[in-house]
Predict the 3D structure of the following.
Amino acid sequence: MPDSIYESSPLLAQYLLFHYGPESLAMPWAFGPREALGFPVRCVTECVDAASLPADARALDAGCAVGRSTLELSRFCREAVGFDYSHTFIVAASTLCRDGELHFEAPEYGMMTTPAVARLPEGIDLSRVRFRREDAERLPEDLGVFDVVLAANLLCRLPHPDRFLERLPSLLRPGGQLVITTPHTWSEDFTAPAFWIGGTPDSGAPLDALNQRLHPHFDLAETKDLPFCIREHARKFQWSVAQTSVWRRRDTPAE
Ligand SMILES: C[S@@+](CC[C@H](N)C(=O)[O-])C[C@H]1O[C@@H](n2cnc3c(N)ncnc32)[C@H](O)[C@@H]1O
């Protein structure tokens, strides 16, 4: 796989800001969509049913980028594993855990930047957290099984999303929770249209297309619309709405 945009410095700065703030830089405009901030935290707090997890719960954050959702999952899971294909992102997440902070330059406009610091959130037990570089389409067997799998905005960045979806039944324990968020930003830059999950005239609505693939092993429990906002620079922001679906792993496959 060639080096992706997710190895670049601008994307690293974007994701550090998106995951760790500070809010004053992530959205400096008082009239901006503040409810769209904190997405990597909200996909955990608003979508995972922490109360129903066992004491020794394991969580997997697939396509974790710089790791904020992994850290949030570790608050109620004894082990939280975050993986991403970007070496740059995994090194950043690991460095933040080691040093407690990570300095970076937030883009202002043109070549101008503002110094910023990503800080480890309070109350994280780092002995529960692991980051590793993995390809979602070729996951090794040694990952084991999980009580929670989160795949936030990953699907439409994979060349063959079905390869990841097909691996999901073996990644979750019966009763386990699967949270998939996606803004359905399908693009030929990442995925040939033949492999899109919905979003073509033939493939139907994206949630139906996802249900078709997941239904034998998962029941759809809930859907939500989660807004998120990524700062490109001080005067340009991507405001998106992720369609979020929460699934439960069935004990036995549906007929
Ligand atoms: C749109 S970002 C979402 C990141 C994070 N989950 C979030 O919500 O902020 C997509 C992520 O998927 C990662 N990614 C792309 N292809 C991947 C692959 N084949 N295996 C694992 N991660 C991949 C990228 O490096 C990037 O971190």
Notes: The beta strands are 58-62, 79-84, 101-109, 112-119, 129-133, 146-152, 172-182, 218-233, 236-249.
